[in-house]
């Protein structure tokens, strides 16, 4: 019998990317989807692969949710917090698959990233685990790109510097970045018509526009265009941002590390749209040749591409623009550092809405409905 699967948060940014992938891979044919909303209850539901799925159900109605075998939610932590325990308390024993961070570090949950922890996922299912959560986007993209080094247990410790896209903070933030771009462009459009105009005069004007009162900064609080923000999420007690705290905690939970691999770094918001980039300094446990490292990195999974450490390949293939909308997690700038023979650098880029959010959930659902992974 086909499972009934509730889809909550499918209208949002992460949810839409998930629906796009499911439609492309014809996933809807292998279960009975039921579509929910917190705000559009009884409104017309969606049509996917030519099939209409009826009116939207109330995402807060425990009695309806209780009837489902599996619930997939991209609605966010607030919704999870409101509904998850209520539903469990009602006696519901179904599978909960979630993009939000709320349940990630709880004992009862497994963080899903099947190219890295498929056997742990299967083991958890055998052990009656019912709660499967997608990881933080930077963590998932880091583990995928460096999967070979992690699986061969070659990493002693590492540091990360992130360059995170506006999409990580939500659709309204992306819109604000575009509005900021628009405001700057409007303000200097006449100057750009005169190539002889001093660039420093234009630059001064941009600064003035960006710092003016009417400049759109409701979401980011400061300009992001022509700027960067070296802080993501709230401050934790030890001076890290919560985004920085997640790197070591979530990565080691996914890896089932007996002894934590120390991973730390700084997370920075930049003005790219939906790809996160990360720069790594890695201390290996032993001195191995660059060619061996490259082989290990490129052979680990079919989404990781090794980009040769040269100018042309890097600027064409290791950028947010070249990766956006794809499932690839290329890794490049791999070279030995002059700090010592065991130290290497690497740089990766990944789509924060695909492998960073939607794809691990889609694949987890496939595992549960007994479909072969693509
Ligand atoms: N794992 C990761 O790295 C990531 C996880 N996330 C998680 O996913 C959650 C959702 O993020 P995101 O998709 O960016 O959130 P969105 O704000 O895009 O969507 C969330 C919900 O807002 C409601 N909504 C209201 N108005 C609209 C509208 N005009 N268009 C579409 N939806 C609308 C929808 O719910 P309704 O139909 O009920 O009104 C929708 O499901 C986050 O809170 C976070 O927890 C996000 C990014 C990355
Ligand atoms: N915090 C990430 C996106 C995100 O939603 O992360 P999480 O799923 O851990 O809350 C970013 O801002 O880029």
UniProtKB/TrEMBL annotation:
Pathway(s): Amino-acid biosynthesis; L-lysine biosynthesis via DAP pathway; (S)-tetrahydrodipicolinate from L-aspartate: step 2/4; Amino-acid biosynthesis; L-threonine biosynthesis; L-threonine from L-aspartate: step 2/5; Amino-acid biosynthesis; L-methionine biosynthesis via de novo pathway; L-homoserine from L-aspartate: step 2/3
GO biological process: diaminopimelate biosynthetic process; isoleucine biosynthetic process; lysine biosynthetic process via diaminopimelate; methionine biosynthetic process; threonine biosynthetic process
TM region positions: none
GO molecular function, one term: aspartate-semialdehyde dehydrogenase activity
Database matches in PROSITE patterns: ASD
EC number: 1.2.1.11
UniProt name for this protein: Aspartate-semialdehyde dehydrogenase
Species for this entry: Buchnera aphidicola subsp. Schlechtendalia chinensis
Source species taxonomy: Bacteria, Pseudomonadati, Pseudomonadota, Gammaproteobacteria, Enterobacterales
């Amino acid at each position: 019998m086909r499972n009934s699967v509730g889809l909550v948060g499918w209208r949002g940014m992460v949810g839409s990317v998930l629906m796009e992938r499911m439609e492309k891979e014809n996933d809807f044919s292998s279960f009975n989807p039921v579509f929910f909303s917190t705000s559009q209850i009884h409104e017309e539901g969606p049509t996917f692969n030519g099939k209409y799925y009826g009116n939207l159900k109330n995402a807060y109605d425990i009695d309806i949710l209780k009837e489902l075998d599996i619930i997939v939610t991209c609605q966010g932590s607030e919704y999870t917090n409101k509904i998850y325990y209520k539903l469990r308390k009602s006696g519901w024993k179904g599978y909960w698959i979630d993009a939000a961070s709320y349940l990630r570090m709880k004992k009862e949950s497994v963080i899903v990233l099947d190219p890295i922890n498929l056997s742990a996922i299967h083991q958890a299912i055998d052990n009656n685990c019912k709660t499967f959560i997608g990881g933080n986007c930077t963590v998932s993209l880091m583990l995928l790109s460096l999967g070979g080094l992690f699986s061969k247990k070659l990493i002693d410790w590492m540091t990360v510097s992130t360059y995170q896209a506006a999409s990580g903070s939500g659709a309204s933030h992306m819109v604000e970045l575009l509005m900021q771009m628009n405001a700057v462009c409007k303000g200097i459009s006449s100057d750009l018509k005169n190539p002889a105009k001093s660039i420093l005069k234009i630059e001064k004007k941009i600064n003035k526009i960006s710092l003016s009162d009417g400049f759109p900064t409701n979401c980011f609080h400061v300009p992001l265009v022509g700027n960067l923000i070296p802080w993501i999420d709230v401050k934790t007690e030890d001076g890290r941002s919560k985004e920085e705290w997640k790197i070591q905690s979530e990565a080691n939970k996914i890896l089932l590390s007996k002894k934590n691999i120390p991973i730390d770094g700084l997370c920075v918001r930049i003005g790219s749209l939906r790809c996160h980039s990360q720069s790594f300094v890695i201390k290996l446990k032993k001195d191995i040749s660059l060619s061996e490292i490259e082989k290990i990195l490129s052979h680990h999974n079919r989404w990781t591409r090794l980009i040769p450490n040269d100018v042309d390949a890097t600027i064409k293939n290791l950028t947010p623009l070249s990766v956006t909308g794809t499932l690839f997690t290329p890794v490049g700038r791999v070279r030995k550092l002059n700090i010592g023979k065991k130290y290497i650098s690497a740089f990766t880029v990944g789509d924060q809405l695909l492998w960073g959010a939607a794809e691990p959930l889609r694949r987890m659902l496939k595992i549960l409905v007994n479909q072969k992974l693509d």
